[in-house]
Amino acid sequence: MKVGLVGYQGGGKSTVFELLTGVPPDPSKAYTGQVGVAVVPDERFDRLVELLRPRKVTPAKIELFDTPGLSREDSSVNAQRLAIIRECAALVQVIGTFAGWDPLEEAKRFEEDLILADLQVVSNRIERLKKDVVKARPDRDDLAAELEALQPLAETLEQGETLRDWQFTEQQDQAVRSFALLTRKKQLVLINTAESQFDSSVLAELQSHGLRAVAAPVGLELELLQLPEDERAEFAAEMGLTEPCRERLLRAIFEVTDQITFYTCTEKEARAWLLKRGATALDAAAAIHTDLARGFIRAEVMSADDLLRLGSEREVKAAGLHHVEGKDYVVQDGDEILIRFNV
Ligand SMILES: Nc1nc2c(ncn2[C@@H]2O[C@H](COP(=O)(O)OP(=O)(O)OP(=O)(O)O)[C@@H](O)[C@H]2O)c(=O)[nH]1
Ligand SMILES: [Mg+2]
After folding, report:
1. Counting ligands in written order, which one lies closest to the CA of residue 15?
2. Which domains does the chain show, CATH number per domain?
């Protein structure tokens, strides 16, 4: 699952990318985008590792996609850049207040761009359907149903609203699947502030507009990390940087993806995995290895919190909190899972 760093040119997307992944942006990828990974901070996993002391530790990672910024002046280049954004599962719009833009204005403007792009895709399909549905075709009924499913979506977009909170029917879901609609993606606004102090009323404004938002002095923090270690404290004091923002941002980005974390722990390796909320034990098995899904027998599950509280698997079992589940079990955030399989 790729999370896109998106927005207008010069907002600081690549600066955020570098801070979070540790990888400097590659200029040769400026027009295509660049993928990097970052570890998802997970305090519960850290405590599990401390308790179990496995030989190997593998935390969960999230994929970040630094995309080319949209142009404010020349919207003709934006169609291709919006197409790049379509590949992302969730969006983080980076707005740089250091550049003098008003965050709420910029967020609204970006939203309009996304709405227009979606409207174009949906309208194109509607026009096509209107032409085909009057022809004598064997699939006429299906086309008519698709047309009916798409029309309310187009109306919503025409009214300048996103599809983020829309309850899609199965038919609608099917009809738009290949469009990867931009305004249907989960989104976070990340305000890249020039200074460590920031007027947080902007966050409240964005939130009342229906957008989740966080703010952080990303540029300053990156600068700090690039200094020799013995100069950092002085720079931080001078700039008023009290608490590092990297982990807080990664956590906020992780939350916007709507995933949960589950764990697999053996003496050899403790590992954290990400899974779509609502996914099953079979999905969890497939995330680990296709063999585990193919030969799935059962999942042995306990909650990491119980394990941490009681101190050992034996104690969890003694307390009756260890359970055996089938393929359809909906994995819960924080489950520790052992998949039994046979291939
Ligand atoms: N003063 C200041 N400058 C910043 C900050 N963050 C980024 N910049 C500068 O702003 C410029 C643009 O930052 P980038 O991170 O390249 O912005 P971008 O969003 O990736 O831009 P595009 O890839 O062109 O869309 C660079 O020169 C950065 O050094 C900040 O917090 N403060
Ligand atoms: Mg960039």
Report:
1. 1
2. 278-341 (3.10.20.30)
